[in-house]
Amino acid sequence: MEGYTATGSAYVVVPDEIVGISSEEWLLRKRGFRRSARHIQITETLLTLGNGYLNLRGGLEERPPGHSSGLYISGIYDKSEADVEEMVRCPLWTDLTLWSEGEAFCLSGCSRVEHEQVLDMKKGILHRTTTYRHASGRILTLETLRMVMMHNVHLGCMLVTITPRNFSGSLRVFSGLDGEVCNRGFFEGEMLKHLQLEKIERGRHFMYLEMKTREQGIRIAEAASWRLVSSPMHQLKWEPRIYGERFTSEITIDVRKGESYSFEKLAVVTTSREVPEKEMMKDSICRLRSFVKRGVRAEIEEHVGAWEKLWKQADVVVEGDWEAQRAIRFNIYQLLINSPRTPTGIGAKFLSSEGYMGHVFWDTEIFILPFYIYNFPESARQMLLYRYNTLPGARKNARNMGYRGAKYAWESATTGEDVTPRFASKLERTIRFIYTGREEDHIVSDVIFGLERYFRVTGDEAFLFDYGLEMIFLTARFWASRVVDAGDRYEIRCVIGPDEFHEHVDNNAYTNYLVKWHLNLAVMLFRYIGKTHPDLLDNLAVRLELTGEEVDSWLEVSRGLKLSRDRESGLIEQFDGYFDLRDYELSRFDRSGHPVLPRGVTYRNIQSTQLIKQADVLMLLLLFPHAFSQKEIIANFTYYEKRTVHKSSLSHCIHAMMGIRAKKRLRAYSFFMKTALFDLDNLHKNTDLGIHAAAVGGTWQAVIYGFGGLSIKSDRLALNPWLPKKWRSLSFSVHWRSRAVDVTVFHNRVAVLIHSDEEENIPLSLYRKMYMVTTNMKTELPYCAS
Length: 786
Ligand code: IFM
Prior knowledge:
Layout: E1 5-7, E2 10-12, H1 16-19, E3 27-31, H2 37-46, E4 49-50, E5 54-56, E6 71-78, E7 86-90, E8 97-100, E9 103-104, E10 111-120, E11 125-133, E12 139-148, E13 155-164, E14 169-178, E15 195-202, E16 207-213, E17 219-228, E18 236-243, E19 246-255, E20 261-271, H3 280-294, H4 296-314, E21 317-319, H5 322-336, E22 348-351, H6 363-375, H7 377-389, H8 391-400, E23 423-425, E24 431-433, H9 436-439, H10 442-458, H11 461-482, E25 484-485, E26 490-491, H12 509-532, H13 534-544, H14 548-560, H15 617-623, H16 630-641, H17 652-661, H18 665-676, H19 693-707, E27 710-713, E28 716-719, E29 729-736, E30 739-745, E31 749-755, E32 761-766, E33 769-774, E34 779-782
Parallel strand pairs: 28-32
Antiparallel strand pairs: 1-2, 3-10, 4-5, 5-6, 6-7, 8-9, 8-14, 10-11, 11-12, 12-13, 13-20, 14-19, 15-16, 16-17, 17-20, 18-19, 21-29, 23-24, 25-26, 27-28, 29-30, 30-31, 31-34, 32-33
The structure holds 5-hydroxymethyl-3,4-dihydroxypiperidine.
Domain Glycoside hydrolase family 65 C-terminal: 711-768
Domain Glycoside hydrolase family 65 central catalytic: 329-701
Family: Belongs to the glycosyl hydrolase 65 family.
């Protein structure tokens, strides 16, 4: 018969072979406790659990002062009194407090004998062990493990074991559902309430809380059961209590010194997007009942199995560099817990916190999407569907600015209408107007770049026909109305490129080149689909009122768009007049390796210098690897790297990849480690505000595109790998069309295995050589990365 098994002194409901901690390279350990709010919140961010539907920060159950525990559900935004819509902090089900003799056991109030939280990234489980010494001298050990289920995203559980070490007596154990949650707001000191209570109910075996967002009325339902599962013989008193928007279930138990007491909390979270409003309570209770009936063990087994499958696809193995390996796994873990299940965008901080208010930026298509395209194309499709669904908002953005077509928002949330805040407290604590929403228009083509990349890798024609063409044509129409006819050429004036230090600039090279490419793509597709699927094109053209003449005009704009490319030096000017600005090279670095601004330069006057915030021209060279010569790559890397302040988390990964291409390999490795450790090392001192999703996606790209050297060249797989000295090998798998491709790179050879339903010979280029690789057979090919 199934029972409770002992692990050390603790009793666990589920045996060790299922929930036992994985080997060290899969773990993120956080030992000790510091009282500072920032430190508490950094740990919460790093230990976040998730399943793509929701994320749960790794907060301590007793919620010490300074905590910022949070649960965020993908795509739930609300404005209310905020300046713009923001991602809503949802009710929590993971609270737990222990009281003895009128005093709580809390890490910030008790002295700590031992404390550790361990995130098991292989299984998506967060473990905690704390031994507290209470002011009264009482010592107690608390062990918890919690997870949000990967196989059934609405379920979560927390298993708790409490062991009084040196006392017997009455212990009060509280856990509930907490709807008293506020967002932290955009400006310091703000607290914004986005939810109001709809229903709070209790039954014999459950608690239920239903809240709704104040503006759109989206309902969030949480149901939970909380019970003592070990030692049923003990004296026990159970009292459910409701305080306003908070439910607390109190269990009072007479504990005996040295004995362990196990509790189990099972929780269900749904929203009115999946369940009709009227049925929410019934539905939640029903789900909770079947969870209880089936038992936590069966659900955890499935959860762990789901994780195993994910890692089988997404794991990247580096032999010889333990630190890099662990950091890569941490970044992939972040991508796995944010994999969209429905058409939703991914925010710049994933669902890990309220930084950037959960808004979706270009980070999504340019930095994050590639991981999903190559590993989980269905998730990539969902991300692109979000952009399709927000086309009406994008059309409104264009209209509001006096343009035609569709203009994707620089910051996007529910509808796709621009939600960039108007003011920000910027570097050096100045409050200033934010121009990115009006001027950082490259986002429009970034989205289309992501879409084209998706199509090229997956070959998903249905997506292109049903959604993609409309996105491409409407955004092309926007650009045709946005460009300025300057007589002998077309220009794009008053923009912000990726480098946000320079606003209101003309002809940003990155933007102009991308728009050239975008318009050209639109023309090419219009003509091609016109030949291959004339009915489809006719229907679309009627719906969009699109004519052949309009499309011809796009080609003219594409050909005539200005791009300053100096053939002799190879240098590309970032925007008109950039080379005339005051020139400085960065030569001083602080203790953490961050560049120090030259004397006289501040973030208020930096616009008048050539110093840039993040990769801009280099970004362009990276996106179009086959369009620029080696000479141009080296010239631009050498020039711009010395002038880049890396004040953005989007910068290091680009420098890592471009460094490899420019053969500045030591620099490249150092940039790579910065991006891979960006949050683990709190590089920009703001990990408390959430994970930097672009750095996470950029880490994956730096490994696969950079060290692995993977690209797709005219519909053919290409590999140009290079491994850092200490890496013995690098292994990864990607999906390409209907095939799965396993690659292992060594210093002088690659091993490739292309899985396919058919026996065929597939061309593959390795550096400048072309090979035919037979499917379903491991093939080893030599190379020399000169
Ligand atoms: O999209 C980025 C931008 O490039 C730099 N500032 C932060 C944004 C969100 O990550």
